[in-house]
Amino acid sequence: MSNILIVGNGPAAQRLVERMRYHGYEGTLTVLGSELETSCRQSASPFSSVTPYASDTLGLSSLPTIHIHVASAVTSIDPEHHRVLAQVSGAEVAYSYDTLVLAPETRPLIPDIPGLVSAEGHLTEGVVAPGTAAILPRITGNAVVVLGEGPHAVETASVLAARRGKTTLVCATPQPLSTHLGETCSGMLSEQLEQVGVTVIAGRPAVRRLPGSLCLVDGTTVPADTLILCTGAAPDTRLAREAGLDVRNGTVVNDQLRTSDPRIHAIGDCAEHDGQVMAGLSAAWEQAETLAEILTGRAADYRPRPASLRLRTDVADVSAIGSLADLHQPGTRLISLTDRANRRYARLALRDERVVAAVLLGLPQAIATIGLLHRRMERLPSDRLGLLLDLPPRLASDSAAADEKTPICLCNNVSKQTLLHAWRAGSRTVTALAEATRATTGCGGCSQSVEELCDLWTRETRYEWEKAS
Predict the structure, then answer these.
(1) Which residue among 206, 232, 258 closes a domain?
(2) Contact in structure between 442 and 409 (CB atoms under 8 Å)
(3) Domains in the chain: how many in total?
């Protein structure tokens, strides 16, 4: 059996291990990670209300041919001798491989703002950047400020507000996520953030960090005992570059996710495919699935899905497909819905009755259905209003069967039908269904729906028992 070595212990690496086992791989898998990286990664908030799954929770580390080495600082790759060198407890250890998979986490980008970094090159007291160390213990004081305008900043601020109370989000753009959602939708999202305890300060860039405060461009000083930098991330390509692999913005891979060295693959935030670094959890999982198929002898090519955003927060259901520019392409037809009273918004761009771009807020069923139709390149149903208002969608003439196949869990493409099969096979709790199907183990947005299905099927089963007796 071959020996596969994986560098990285984040979601991409863990997903790969799980899918390798799913596809029947029986060889040796060795995972090298400097820490439980899911606790401090850029593409999934370290403060998420959803507990990210880790290798131990899946029972992977207990399998005899899976070796997980946490606290192994990988120092270099030796392609000539097919080995990786790492520091373990102060000593250098060599790990051999037949196949090497690079899945390191991203490096946080530190903005060029005076006062963030000391003369020695370290973050100053009270400044925290995901990926630099364990984060939660470093959040101190009453005034917590999150700096950034992207999904990671919004997720972090909303969860901190729920856990710690009032939190401030400072962003340079007119509204958080305005470059993804547009003015109206991002404004509605800001209103919802404010209602859960997040003070949004938008359109005023930070210019200086002082002890216990943050200075903005208009002269305003914001109290900030702890300042959390959610200001972007860059692929970690150091190991690949030093090993002589082809590196541009990321580690270059082909359709088989293979680097310029035929024994080495790369997935996740570090990989560059067809000129694009496909960052984010969904892309990492797609790559892990494709590579698992390839490494278990199946014919597969990586074909990235169009860019999309799904916010991982309990504050609001938010999704964006494509870009704002896609909403104004020539030859597209726009469909819009704005319902401020019920916190709902939709803007769709159609071509040949198919979605080419969309922005949605507060419409969970529509997000699931439209996302599915977009991935399959299928036409929207004729009842557009019913679709957007979360009425039962009609994907085909046999709508009942189609509804059963609509994903409940978007991250893992788990349908109601799949969940019901797992339930009937004995997975009678949310935890058991998660283990059987991976539903709820991604962004967690489907957790409530899965719990409601569990309750429904429990009541139906109890009713059948009572009727039989």
Answers:
(1) 232
(2) yes
(3) 4
